[in-house]
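**Backbone shape codes:**
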Amino acid sequence: MTLKPPSFEEIIAHKKRRIAQSQVVTPLDSLRALARMQGRPQDVGSYIRDNRIALLARVMNPAARKFADPEAQENPYDPVMIARRLVRQGAQALMVSTDELYHGGSVSHLTLVANAVDVPVIRSDYILDEYQIVETRAAGADGLIIVPALLDADRLRSLISIAQRNLMTAIAKVHNEEELARVLPFEPGLIALDNRDQITGVLDFDTSSRLLEMVPGHISILVMGGLRSPHDVSRVMTGADGVLVNQDLLLAPDSAAAIRSLLGIKDRSGRRKPDLPPSSPPGL
């Protein structure tokens, strides 16, 4: 049995209700005070560019799979345990899903993970309002995903600017040329090229390779969407500054080792994996 994923209209309606409820519990001014207590966030864009190709991993409640298999039985979700395992397996930054209704996440998960690891931590959610950005900084995160498809031009510009004023990295997630063209004038610190259409769910690995050519060289590029195997990673890594994989891929020792080798990431003994010779198909 398959459940229909939520529409953007449903997502926005839910988020607006959630923001209104949160503001009653913790007003924005109080949240700003909490945010000022946090240490300076890491520059995620620069951090990613400093690596050969950075490996990012998503921390997500397995219950989010309910849309594919709502009867599946899952173990209790422990974001800190998962985050620490992902870092041990080579993840150089983490993206934590915090949406409550559709992904079984929580802002509290973001706080727990940010306090448990020393790599950059990014919030993945449907960001619509300044309140959510200040909330992200108060949780100790270093950056957050912003989805242009959810926002008009004025709100998109405003949210990127607010994230930057809060010293965080605004990561614009785009899927097509129109979304990319809309966001480029606002100079996000990092652009995530998503191979999966957020509306139809259709996966096309040519998306990122096509859009890569349109991104100015001074903006870091993250490729994401549908990377379920080392072979998938090898298909999209050229030209990217980082790749985002789902947690299952790094929690499996064999695929984690293959991806570390592909990306030239140090193994747990501290030795750097040698780069693959140009004549060899990477990771195959």
